[in-house]
Amino acid sequence: MAHLSLFERRRRRVRTALVAKAGGRPRLSVHRTNGHIYVQVIDDSAGKTIAAASTNEKGSAGSGGTVAAASDVGKRIAERAKAAGVSRVVFDRGGFLFHGRVKALADAAREGGLEF
């Protein structure tokens, strides 16, 4: 485990804490790149993706690398998760810091009705 990047160490730390606290709830996993943001609701016990949304989809608002676009993705994932019967999740920010686009996505998902 030597020579892991700061990002990878942070990702492992976050995931380990989540698994301990999840209590069987699905995981809302976020991945951010410079150009886009992707989010999935994952049922780890079944190994299946329940719902997904990203700025890469047709009809997504604005360019992918903005806070407004991340907020739009947060609203869409909340709608899709609720349609799939999921209302409580654990938030997996991966190795990304909780600010900017990641925070905007989380706040929009909460406003959309997801609990975490």
TrEMBL record:
One Gene Ontology biological process: translation
Organism expressing this protein natively: Sandaracinobacteroides saxicola
Family label: Belongs to the universal ribosomal protein uL18 family.
Gene3D superfamilies from the UniProt entry: 3.30.420.100
SUPFAM superfamilies: Translational machinery components
Family annotation (HAMAP family): Ribosomal_uL18_B (MF_01337_B)
Protein name: Large ribosomal subunit protein uL18
PANTHER family cross-referenced by the UniProt entry: 39S RIBOSOMAL PROTEIN L18, MITOCHONDRIAL, LARGE RIBOSOMAL SUBUNIT PROTEIN UL18M
Organism taxonomic ancestry: Bacteria, Pseudomonadati, Pseudomonadota, Alphaproteobacteria, Sphingomonadales
Pfam family for this entry, one: Ribosomal_L18p
Listed GO CC annotations: cytosolic large ribosomal subunit
Protein purpose: This is one of the proteins that bind and probably mediate the attachment of the 5S RNA into the large ribosomal subunit, where it forms part of the central protuberance.
GO molecular function, one term: structural constituent of ribosome
Record keywords, A-Z: Ribonucleoprotein, Ribosomal protein, RNA-binding, rRNA-binding
Quaternary state and interactors: Part of the 50S ribosomal subunit; part of the 5S rRNA/L5/L18/L25 subcomplex. Contacts the 5S and 23S rRNAs.
